[in-house]
Each structure stands twice: as C-alpha cells, then as structure tokens.
Amino acid sequence: MNVENPFQDPLRFERRVPECTVVIFGANGDLTKRKLLPALYRLMYERRLAPGFAVVGVSRTPMSDDQFRDKMRDSVKKFLEDSPFDDDVWAGFSQGLFYMAGDVHDADSYARLAARLNEIEQARRTGGNVLFYLSTQPSQYASTAKGIGAAGMARGNGWRRIIIEKPFGHDYDSARELSREVHEVFPESEVYRIDHYLGKETVQNILAFRWGNGIFEPLWNRRYVNHVQITAAESIGVEGRGAYYQEAGALRDMIQNHLLQVMATVAMEPSGVFEPNAVRDERAKLLRSIRIMKPGQVNLDSVAGQYGPARVGGADVPGFRQEPGVDPNSRTDTYAAATFFVENWRWAGVPFYIRTGKHLPKRVSEITISFNPAPHFLFGHNGDAATPNLLILRIQPEEGISLKFSSKQPGAGMKLRPVSMDFNYGASFGERSPSAYETLLLDAVLGDATLYSRQDMVEASWSAVRPIMDAWSDSKVDFPNYPAGSWGPKAADEMLARRGHAWRNL
Amino acid sequence: MASTVQPDHILSELSELWVSLGEQHGEESAGVLRACAMTLIVLAGAGEDESAIGETLAALMRDHPSRAIVVRIRDIEQPELEARVFAQCWMPLGQRRQICCEQIEISASNGSLADVPAVVLPLVAPDLPVIVWSRLPRLLTSSALKDLSRIAARTIFDSAAFPDPKAALAALAQAAASGWRLADLAWTRLTRWRELIAQIFENPAYSSRLPSIETVAIHYSGIVPQASVHYMEAWLRLCLERAGSRPDFRLYPSGEPSESGLCRIEFAAAGPQGLSVVVRKAEGSAAEVRVDALVNRTVFPEASDHALLREELSISGRDSIHEAVLALAAKTGV
C-alpha cells in the first residue's frame, strides 16, 4: 500500500528517498572504490538515504562482510572529496554494507544473491526495492543482466532497476544488441544508462539557464548564433589506462556519449513539462537530427589526433605509443574533433564544433555560443570588425557563465574593447555541489531517469559518429600528430578555418 | 547636534569602494568580482558581539552574497545616526579573482529608530529580494520594523531569544496573521529533527502504521519547554492528524542539554504489529534513530546562526507549513 508521508516538507527537505538495496557488480573495482561508495556515503552523511538503505557488493574476490566494510572504509576516507569522514555516520552506514563473492557467469552465484536480498529485505525493510549497478567489464553486461533475470531477481515486491556504465556497446550494432539482451530481463523504463557528464551540476544548469530565463531562448537559433564550440580538454594522458584506452579512443570515449549529450542539452527544444521522458524525448529528437556525414565529408569535418612525446613543464612526457600497455604502433585517437550540423529549423547551417583530447595544455570543459557580429559596425578603425558576442558556459574547473560583449574604452575617441560579464557558480552559490555520481545514484533510486541515456539516444549518437569511425579505421593518418601539451593537430584548426572560424583561445 | 546620514552619500561611498578595490589589485590580479543576490538588513543591539555577527555575515556571504546593511541600535534616547561602508572579500581556493560583497553599517540610537527606514530603503540593492533579520525581540512591535517588513520578502526572528516562549509564539503568530512573511530560527533548528522523522515514514511499512500511533513523548531540555518544543508538538499534531491519528502527547523535562531544546522523541503504535520509533540526540554531534530493532546513526551537528540563516535565505516564498504550525503552536501553547 502506498501511503502518503504526512511529514514531508518539500520546501526544506531534500527529495524523498525510498528504502532500497543497491547491488554493485564489480564491487572490487576502481569505480566502486573511487566514486560509488564515496557518493553513497556522502548521501548518507547528508541524510539523503533512508535508514534501511543497504549495499551488496559482488565480485569474484573472496571477502567477508567485515572485510568489505574495512576496505570500503579506507576507500571512502581516501576518495571522499571536500567532505569530512564521520565515524558515527560510517558506523550506521556500514551496518548496511554486505558482500558476496560470486562469478557473473555462475548461476549459483545469482541464486545465493537472491537469497541474500530476501534476507536483507526482511531485516532492513527495504520493501523489495533493488537497484542493480553493473560496474563490470562491458563484455559482462548482457550475461549479468540475464543472470539476474534467470534467478528471478528482476521482479520482486518492490521496484527493480539496472544501471549500466558506459560504453553502451562499441558501435551502433553492438549497442542495439546489448539493449536487446538487457530488454529480455528489464524493460527500457527500468534501464538506466549512466553518463556521469549529465550529472554535473553545470550541465544541468544549462537547462535552467535556457528555460528558466526569458531573454536567451529567443536568441538561441540560427538567426543569431553563428556557431557553437564544445571543448573537453584533459591535461593528463591515459594514466595507466592505456590498455583500455587504446580499445576506445577519444571519439568513442568522449564524443559519442558525453559530448554529444552535452550538445543535445545545448541544442534541444524545450520540453512541455520537466519530466524524465519528456526531456529525454527532446534530447533524443535532437540527436536524431544530427546530419550523418557522407564518406567524402569525414576528412573535412573530423580530425583524429594522437599525442607524441614532448617536454611539458620541464619534464619529459611520453607519447601515447610509449605509455605502458599501449601497442607501439597504436592507431588510437587520443584527440578527436568534429563538426556536426543539426538538421532542423532552429539550427540549420550552424556548425557545432566539438573537440576533446588527452595531454592538451589544460583541463577545461566549456561550451561557447558564438553569436553573429553586429550587422553594420560603426566603430571600426583601420578595418576593425565587430567582435562577436560570446556566451560561455563553463563546466569545469571553474563553473559558471560569462557573456563577452564590447564596451567603449574610457577616454577620448570611440575605441571598443571586449569585456566580460561573469557569473561564477561558486560565488553565487557557495554550497558544495553534489558530485555527478551522488546526483545520478539518487536519481536512479528515486526513479528519475531525466539525466540517463535511453536506447534511442545511444543509438542516435552511435549513428552520428559511425561514418567517422568507419573512415578513421580505413585512413592512414600519420600518428603521432600533436605533441603532448599542445592544443591538438593543426588539421583541427584548419577544420574551423575553412568556415572562417577559429577555436577559442582557452 | 544629532548626526545624520545621507543615503546618496553612502551610495557614492559604495561606488568609490568598488573602484578602490579594483585598483588595489595590480596588473597581476584578475580583478574583483562583485556578487550580490539580495539585501540583508540586520537589526542588532549595539552591545551585541560585533565580531560574532561579522563572522556570521562573512560566512553567509559565500552562500548568499548580499548587500548587508547592519543597523546597530544603541540604547540611548538622544537622536544619533552614523554610517560607514566596507567590503567583505574572499579569494576562492585556486582562483585569481577576489569575490567581494558590500556591507553598510549604520549606528542608530533608540531615539533615531524611526528614521532608520528612510535611510535604509534607498540603500537596498535594486530588483533583488530584501531580507530583514531582527536580533532584537523588542523590535517586533516597533513601527520601524513594520516599515522595513513591508518591503521584505521575509523577516527573520528567533523566538528562542524572547523571554517568554508562549508569548513569543503568540506575538509572531499575530504578526504572521497580519501579513508579515515571517521566519523563526527556533523553527529552523527543528529541520534536521523533522527531516529524520519524515525519512523514517518514507517507508510504506512504517507510514501504513501511522493511524495506529497512540502516544508521542517529547523529552526537552531545561525546566520549561522552549518555543521549539511547542513547534515540534504542533507540527507532529498536524502531521499525525493528516494520517488519521490523534495520539496522546506527553512532554517530559530531561536533564540533557540540547541547543534546539529537544532531547528525544518517541512514537508508539498499538496493534498486532506495533511500532516503536525513537529519535534522540546522541553523544557528540550525532543523532540516533531506532525503528523497532533497526538502529542507525547520523551526523547532527549543532546549527550555527550561519547555517540557520543559510536555510532561511534559500526560501524565497511563503513557508505555509511554518505558518500553519505557528498558528497552532500559538493557540495550544501547551
């Protein structure tokens, strides 16, 4: 029976969180230690989780509940960002931590897990709500989902949901196949494909900025917007993840999922209501509207790069091919840039430039909306042109929004110079922002899939990058083609220059 | 001769302040970022700890950057009004640009209290909400506060500072009924308690048993229950009534100290399944929640003025739950 809680005070209390058990497959992995457990602990610390909340870690390593608790305690202490570790909170939280050694290919493991979940449901009164989190090797996603189904755990007294980490397939066909296999057990409405980029506070703020204000949306179209740039630069290399990374590459690892989702958030139509499926329908529609590049176009509208050795900050930095675990002849892209067009009335003809890469000069993620310059410039000297207005949505590290416009220089004459009007997220809202995993885990427990990818969104984004992947796999770009610590291959600058544009100097 | 204050003069001092702040930080700096999301008018006694209020405001500026107008009221009748302006600045970790908020301090005597609104009103930051925080209970009935509250999105009191808790609730309820948008920090101190209770009954297994709750016991610190205890009782009565329960309420004094005035709340339900819920302040800065045999602990630090104000300032509209609870607490005043 669903009884309304008369004690709720939505004005002051955070969102309601039902009791549930989170089952983490791959509980001995890095993601669990670095992100998931610290995020769950933090939610408990903030009193966001229900008292009976429980976590069951599953992995192959034999461990007792207490050993798992000790291990997770160390991890939480180590990876808890900007939050204190409190022994009392941990004492309560750890009572709900359980561990089960099991193999995702072994039917008996699932049967034991089902029995364990029943015990926990009774002891902690979780109402049978279970959230399965697949943090295993991607190749094990389908078999794990099927194992859950075969043991009868996809149905129960409460809701049953499954979170799948990226990558959702390694191309369009494998993504479809993965969805088909998962759907044998879980309906699409209970499948949560996590893209932690969408959980970032500032990415969510794009929606607030666009739809919570009346003055920007009328300018948000081909009539006023000249082009859009999306940059996600990392200053570090593959950091020991060379073996994984050389199977993925920048296009698959960043553009296909994170950055196309960001682009969709920037360019999508407003939904009628702010509800998960309404928002996701619009996001999916936008992704489906991305023009699919023709084979002859790929060379002009995309650039692959791979960093080579260089001296950065007085130290020798190895090239990608010299990284441990990387094939010395690897053809993996550590840099990817592409020009996308959206085929709809709002955006027809407006280029969306996206770039991402490893070992670029600094860590920065920004979206820049470059507006058309004033149609007739009154203040030109010696052929000066109007400086375009830029709206910059800064995602990391300094979160905020800036508007660049021209202003008269003080003094005689009419000289203009660009100035910046800044909104600094930290300055206006000093409260700590929740981490992306805190936001997304809480959303999944609450059944809010707004920030999760849906099958059609995943397939649309694979479709958008498929011609690039195909062309790159056939081409013979001379790698490495940019030194570590630089802004990527020259060809990426030329890609913009062909349309009279240039990457922003970040 | 009585000193006077010209709002225009203060405003021009504010402009100069920003220019000089910009000039202080040579070529190397990225300048100063002005942040302002509201006007916060603080009414305090001249004898109050200046540095404590300053620290509260400085901490608050990071969450709610505002133009702060601190009016210090001196307990003398001779008319006296003075003002000065300065900035609260901080450098966010790892950034090159300082963030600054402006602060205006006005010193007024009791005899000049009536002149304060005319000085303050031109100084509020345009187009942004105005919040009044009165630290002086006696101002509740003053015409100066009445004038300021007319433009205020919220007027904040702390009924815990009033000498008589029942009289305080009655006076606040009367002000709320006459249209003031009130906040009471004594109520804010209960948020964590209330949230813990709400969280427990989020579970349908427990909320389904709410109609069979027969007794609620509230253990309070001190000899006489503080306003927050009356608030808690009124809130629980309202909530339980909505769930179809009219339990017997019992209040017990307890020897334990508690900043909110509450030490322990117990719910007991009858019936074959029964239910026992205990929420209590535990040792240190923790709270213990016991639901039948399930025990959990959570952090429960004492809320500073800064934390309480931060919560109130994040509410921009009416707080209908507080209004309803205040009205009932003032009526029952148990």
Q: What can be said about this structure in brief?
A:
The complex is a heterodimer of chains A (506) and B (334). With 506 residues, chain A is an alpha/beta fold.
Description:
- With 506 residues, chain A is α/β, with parallel strands linked by helices.
- In chain A, 35% of the residues lie in helices and 19% in strands.
- The radius of gyration of chain A is 24 Å and the shape is globular.
- The termini of chain A are far apart.
- In chain A, 45% of the residues are buried.
- The model of chain A has no long low-confidence stretch (mean pLDDT 90).
- Chain B is elongated, with a radius of gyration of 23 Å.
- Chain B has helices at 7-24, 50-63, 116-120, 143-151, 165-177, 185-188, 191-200, 204-207, 227-242, 305-313, 320-332; strands at residues 32-34, 38-45, 66-74, 81-90, 98-109, 130-134, 154-157, 182-184, 213-221, 248-254, 262-269, 275-281, 286-291, 294-299.
- In chain B, strands 1, 2, 3, 4, 5, 6, 7 and 8 form an 8-stranded mixed beta sheet that branches.
- Chain B starts with 6 loop residues before the first helix and ends with a helix.
- With 334 residues, chain B is of the alpha/beta class.
- In chain B, helix 2 (50-63) packs across helix 10 (305-313), helix 5 (165-177) packs across helix 11 and helix 9 crosses helix 11 (320-332).
- The mean pLDDT of chain B is 85.
- In chain B, strand 4 and strand 5 (98-109) form a beta hairpin.
